Amino acid sequence: MSSKSHAVEADIHPSTLAQKESKRKWVSYIWDTFDKSPEERRLMSKLDSAILTFASLGYFIKYLDQIKLTVRYVIGEIPSNLLLTRIKPRYWIPAMELLWTVLTMSLPRCSKPTQFYVLRFFVGLAESTFYPGMQYIIGSWYRKDELAKRSCIFHTSSGIASMFSGYLMDAVYNLGGRGGFKGWQWLFIVDGIISLPVAISGFFILPDVPEISSPWYLSQEEVKLAQKRMKLEGRKDREPFMKSKLKKIFTSWHIYLLISSTYVSTTGPPEASLFSNNPVYTISQINSIPTTTPAVQVVTTLAYAWISDSILNGSRWPPIIFGACINIISYISLAVWDIPTGWKWTCYIISGAGYGLSGLLMAWAHEICSEDNEERSLVIGSMNEMAYVFQAWLPLVVWQQVDAPQYRKGFIAITVLSVLLIGTTLLIRNLHRRERVQKSTNEAHEAEETEEDSVGVMSLDANGIKA
Fold it and tell me: Rounded to an integer, what distance in angstroms lies between the CA atom of residue 16 and that of residue 22?
C-alpha cells in the first residue's frame, strides 16, 4: 500500500472503516445500530440492554436520594475512577450501590442527629462512585458515532429523577404516620426498596472494560469484536501509572479546560424556593411546578445527543454553545426581573436547556482523552468532582435565601459562566483540532518512512541476488 493510501486510511473515521461498502442509511439518524452489520448490531443490543439499563436505573435512584437531602460528595469520585483502571468495575460499582442501599434504608432508624450525619456521609461517599464510574464504562465500549447518545441517555436519568422526585415527595408526604414512620423516613425506605434489586443485578449484567471482560451474555467472538471496535476508535488499554504518565496528564490542557467546561451545566437556581414563600402555591404545587425545567432538560439532552452524533457527524461544540446561549437569554431576562410574568415563566422553564450539556461534555472528554485510558478515567472523575466542588460554595454566595425570589446575583453569575463556557468550548475545539491534524501528519510521516525503509531493504535484496 502506498504512503498516500496510508494517509487516506488515517483520515477515515473508524466508524467508516467498519462500513466502507455502504453509505450511511437514513435510519441510522434514528438509531445508529440500524446501519451496522448483524454481528455488530447484536453486540450493541446486548451492551445497551446491560450497560444503559443498569446505568440509568442506578443514576435515577442515586439522584432521588441526592435530592432529598443535598449531599456534597467530593471525596470519593477521583479515587474511585482511578481504582477502576486497576480492578474489575463489575464488582466495585455494584458493591458501592449495594452499600448505599443498605445505608439509606438504615437512615430511618437513626435516633440521634450524629448517627444520621455519619450515615449520610458514607451514603454520599458510596454514591460518588456511580456517575463518573459509569461514564468511564460507557466510554470504554462505545464509538464516536454512538457515544453521545449513550452518555446523554444515562445523564437524562437525573432529569427524570428531578421530575419524579417532586411527585414522589408529594405522594410520600401523605404516608407520614403509617407504620410508625414519618414522611421523610418513608422517602428513604422507598428509595432503598427500589435500589436493592438494581444493585444486585449489577453483579450479573455490568461488564468490565473490553480488554478484561468476559460477561456471560457475550461470546468470545463478540468480546473480540468489541476490542477491535475500541482499537479502531483509538481507545487505549489500561496501563500502569508511571511518573511520566502523571506528568503528561497534568501538563496537558485536557484536564484543565475540560474541568472548567462543566461548571455551568451543573449550576442553577434553587427553583423550588422561588415559590415556597408565596402563599398562592400549595405544598403539592411547590413539589410539582419545578418539574417542568427538568422535562426541558431531558428533551434537550437527548436532542443534543442525536444531533451531535448524526447530523453534526460527531461535533460536540455546536449544541454546547447553543445551550449556553439559551442560558444567557434566560438569565439576563431574569436578572432584569421586571418582565412579563409569562416570559419569566418561560425563562425558568427553558433554562433546562442549559443543564443538559454534561452528558455531551463527558462524551467529548472520552474522545479527546481516548489515547490514554488513565487520563480518560482521571479527567472524567475530575470533571464531575470539580462540578460538585463548585456547587458546594457558589449557592452560598449567589443563591442566598434572603434574595429570593429575585436572585439577581445568581442570575448574573450564571450569565457570566455561560459566556465563559462559550469561550472555553471554542478553545477546546481549536486545540483538539490542532492535535488531530498533528497526529495525522505524524502518522503520514511515519508511514512514508516505513515505506522508504521497505523499498531500501528490497533494493539491497535485489542487488544481492543480482550479484
Answer: 9
